[in-house]
Amino acid sequence: MNLEKPFKGLKVIELASVLAGPAVGMFFAELGANVIKVENKKTMGDVTRSWKLASEDQNHPFSAYYSSVNWGKQSIFLDLKVESEFNQLLEEIKTADIVICNFKPGGAVKFGLDYASIKIINSNIIYGEITGFGKEDRLAYDIVLQAETGYISMNGSDINNQVKMPVAFIDLFAAHQLKEGILIALLQQQKEKKAYCISVSLFDTALASLTNQATNWIVAKHIPEPLGMLHPNIAPYGERFTCKDGKDIVLAIGSNGQFKKLCDTLNLSDLMSDQRFENNQKRVLNRTALAKELAPAFKHKQRGTLMEDLIKNEVPAGAVRNMKEVFEIPASKSRIIESELNGEKLSSLSANAFTIVS
Q1: Which residue, 258, 236, 235, 238, is CA-closest to 250?
Q2: DSSP 127
Q3: Is the Cβ–Cβ distance between 28 and 35 less than 8 Å?
Q4: Which residues of 246-264 are buried (b: 16+ CB within 10 A; e: fewer)?
Q5: pLDDT tens, 289-327?
Q6: Which of 27, 203, 231, 310 has the lowest tally of Cβ within 10 angstroms?
Q7: How far out from the chain centre does Cα 216 lie?
Q8: Confidence band of 69 (pLDDT split at 50, 70, 90)
Q9: How would you label 113-151 residue by residue, b for 16+ Cβ within 10 Å and e otherwise?
């Protein structure tokens, strides 16, 4: 097996648009699968082709957003209401290994592209579907799910300044859930070759991803509220400080040992004997006072120099970078991938952060 292209020879039909479904398709494409993306001819394709920044070329056939999850695919435009074109799709499905879709409730049945219908023409198909709210007939976009499942209520600087997450994480979480389900089905097919249907909803995915914030309520009856970058359970974690050159650092101190290393690095060892900060719970209670004690020490050094000291002393901290600064890092540049889609250059960021060695 080629460990870099483990899915070479696998055929995937993508009947999905926007972000979640296409992200799954790109996962398989990047790992060697032949992914055929079917786009709606009548609507000029995936709607994200038109989701362009004001600075983008309005005449280009697709947007930067579209590029983010459609690397390495073959795109075909079909009108599924035209019999010949629908039959063309069915012929492709007959020889496919996986179908990925995100139809509105009832849409798959309407087109005859639901799991039961496809299983009749391909008895070994793995059918992966993403819905918004399961069987509930309701439009679902990422921000709607962020609102419905509590993310917006606990994100922002305070209760009067709540915000959404800047990336459509609910879509991406759903994509990861569907990938996992499909990979399990592929594994099961090694034991018994038959069809499988994996269904993931954005709602269930969002709930599953609440993790500790959910248990803060389930176990402790604590309703999470916006804390900006701060963490409800740990301090100083999320506190942001400005250095001598005007650039910022954020801390992620998770233990007493790390707090001691931070104080030593900043020449503030006396804080270790301050009863207000002697353990994590007290640091959480007195985090505002602690931040005031720490802030002046950051003003004495350039960010680069201080980050070197923090890293050397094993203090968890990060430089707060904008996107330009992120992609000035060689490791970030190396993750940019390029391909062609219908004759046009398509640049994206590798969706797969893992490596496999034997």
Answers
A1: 238
A2: E
A3: yes
A4: ebebbbebeeeebbebbbe
A5: 999 999 999 999 999 999 999 999 999 999 999 888 888
A6: 231
A7: 23
A8: very high
A9: bbbeebbeebeebbbbbbbbbeeeeeebebebbbebbbb
pLDDT digits (tens, 9 = 90+) for 192-249: 999 999 999 999 999 999 998 899 899 999 998 887 888 888 999 999 999 999 999 9
Does the pLDDT of residue 1 top 60, yes or no? no
44: left (phi over 0), alpha (psi -120 to 50) or beta: left
pTM metric for this prediction: 0.83
HSE-up of residue 70 (Cα within 13 Å, Cβ side): 30
96-147 tens-digit pLDDT: 999 999 998 888 999 999 999 999 999 999 999 999 998 888 888 899 999 9
**Host H or E run for residue 345:** strand 344-349
In order of start, what are the domains of the chain with their CATH numbers? 11-209+333-349 (3.40.50.10540), 237-320 (3.30.1540.10)
Residues classed as catalytic: 171
**Token output for 97:** 């290994």
